[in-house]
Records
---
Amino acid sequence: MQEIQTYLLNLSHTIEYLLDEYSKYSRQKNISIDSSLFSSFKRDLIEIKDRIGSLKVFDFSSEMSIRYCLSRLACIYWSFSWRSSSYSEEWHSNIFQLSLLDESKVNYSRYEHFFLNGIEGYISTLYNLPETHGCIITNSWMSAFDIILQFLLWKWELATIFIPSYIYFESHQQIENIAHSTGSKIKEWKNMTEDDIIEYIILNNPDVVFIDPRTNTGIIRELDLEYIFSQLSHENITSKFVVDVTMIGTDIGFSYKYPSLDTIVYLSGSKYLWFWLDMNMMGVVIFNKKEEAALVLIRRNTGSILYEQASIMFPAFWIDIYLQRLKSLEKSATELYLNLIWDQEIVEKYIVSYPNDSHYDFHWGIVTINFREKWLRTKENYKKLIGILLSNASTSSYPLVHGVSFWFSTTRVSASDVMSHEEDVFLRVSCGIQEFYENKPLSLLFKQSLYEFKY
């Protein structure tokens, strides 16, 4: 918690410095601004610092305090900043960050801004990117993918597209739209093995390969991209590889270790990278720097940048803290998975899925539960099971949330379907941070509820 406090205090000092400098500037330029505004925000800063100092342990209460402090600091900045800052001015002000005065660059916040550069540097360090590679930050996972599609349409041949396994349904829909308008041919399979994929690419050399290392499905599947890429690196392959690495944490060395393969990756930054605070959407594109100018141009022209309002609130906490939390999620999910599959009564009725023997450093924080009888796999039955879980959670004072999406500090359940490829409905369990639960094993809640379900 001390490291988080230090980060928040540093951010509050930065905002306070900008506020003090702007106050001096407005007096020097005879700009009429109600002095009570500065006094009010000064009081806010004192209250924010006091709240930061009161944080002791990272629990549900402190999580809300952190959200509050980040949003209040952002509010102070927003109150004085402008999306199109002035270059110079007299008697009136349209600027807050004074370093932008007399700039030759266009002061549109959709081009670039101060806070964004810090986030991109943080992500580059977190993902251990080599000097040859960089990243850009976007305002959502989907906008990151759309930037890549725009780049492919502009710079790449798209006659043949290869999709060897499940990819997220929204990406899939966008690819289908592109293929419909361009006449591209899509070759698609659901569950090819690594060797099948290697053989197909060597024989056909498709223009673009969309491939995900871990599926977001009821039965979680993995592809060993390190193995696939290492084998293809010895071949004369001209395919462009587009990889969604959202599900595997920071273990993406395969994307830049093999310079003979042309690879671009993207990911959602809305959950893990936002430290489970769920305050804003964010996407990331990671690329070879030879493509940077084109990708930045597309981001600018499509308005896909992560704007200042969100960027200020990005919790760029110490990387060690981030990695520790990934491991905590993984521990929660692993213990739930093992306790369920070791119970004979449960495995007779349910298929429990989790990548326990993963190819990747981060095994994941999600466990899926499927009724073994296929006819039971309906939204209604899973919602009935969720009702039992919530009732038992209430009785045992166990924090549990019913809602879509995943990767929160609190355990969250939903009756999910992937909305494409005709996959069955399944129960997704996004396991919470283990330390939050005061030694209340997640497996006890789920075992009791799975036992109780009757049909």
Note: The longest strand covers residues 262-268.
---
Amino acid sequence: MVVDIWIILLGLAAGGILLLRDWRLTVGLLMLKYVVLAGLLNEQPFVQPDLGQMGLSSLALIKLITGICTTLILAVTALTFSREYGLEDLDEFGQAELRRALRAAARQRSTETFQLIDYILPFGSGVAALVASIVLPIIYPIAPNPALDFAWYWLALSGILSIATASDILKIGLGMLLCISGIDLLYTAVISDPAASGLKIMPLLLLSVVQILLALAIAYLAGLVYGRLKTLAINELYRG
């Protein structure tokens, strides 16, 4: 497998989403992931640049637009539900929920000395996913070349593990978007095979629409959870 800059950046972006917990970093890495996917696909021989002299393909442009839309949706969601509200804006029920959120924040601060433990499971699972993404293209190749096989395996596995190790609603959404991006990349690679029907824009547009709708669904779910708990942390769902 020839390792180029796009594969390295894709590995860093998906791995960062799996490992990191700060939404400011993970949402930014999500946009980086879409940019890298656009660049990776744009250099494939089965993708023809058809946008004039820019050397850019319609497929790459679709990935960029999808990335901008999903990133903006999740960024606005995170900004909206991380801002602070004054007590004067809340009724007695809102103040009670705010006090509950403050107690949850205090509990989180009290465990900050053990934050390193929180990264052990994502890091270990990320290493296992990386090894699997390297080995599986050798054992069971699907895409036209090993680089694309590694890319879709890595996106799908890191997405699944991001969901499994998520601590908040946004992280679950990021993991789901990684999984769909892996499926999207696999479909693009397989359908472009000469024995297949060939690359068509409409199914890829539908996959992009699904990703945008998923981002909107995550934003809606985040609003429901925040409206009830005044936090997006999953563990608060199980507290009395």
Note: The first helix runs from residue 5 to 19.
---
Amino acid sequence: MEWAWLHAYSVFRVLLLMGTHLEQHGVAQKVFELYSERVFSLAVFDGKRMDLSNYDYVFAANHLVGIANRVKERHATQRDRRMWTFYALQALTGLYEQRFKKYFEIPLVAVL
């Protein structure tokens, strides 16, 4: 079941990266709700499951873009051709600053 958990977490991060694009097309919240109900809520590991029922996905996705752009401005050189998504992944994993990571942690609940 650990693999299912890791895959669900990876999908969660990809959805965060795609959030602003999905929002431009007016489907961000619906897509996230679909994944929350059909994928994330089924991912169980170590007696816990993901509970994203109250997660503000659109805010988190927009916040991630803002953080990524600020980190890129601060750490990138003029010749850096990395896309904002590179810095977004760094923010998600906490490699640049640990304080960003808390915004993207998945709420967990015990499985009864």
Note: Helices lie at 2-24, 28-38, 57-75, 84-93, 98-101.
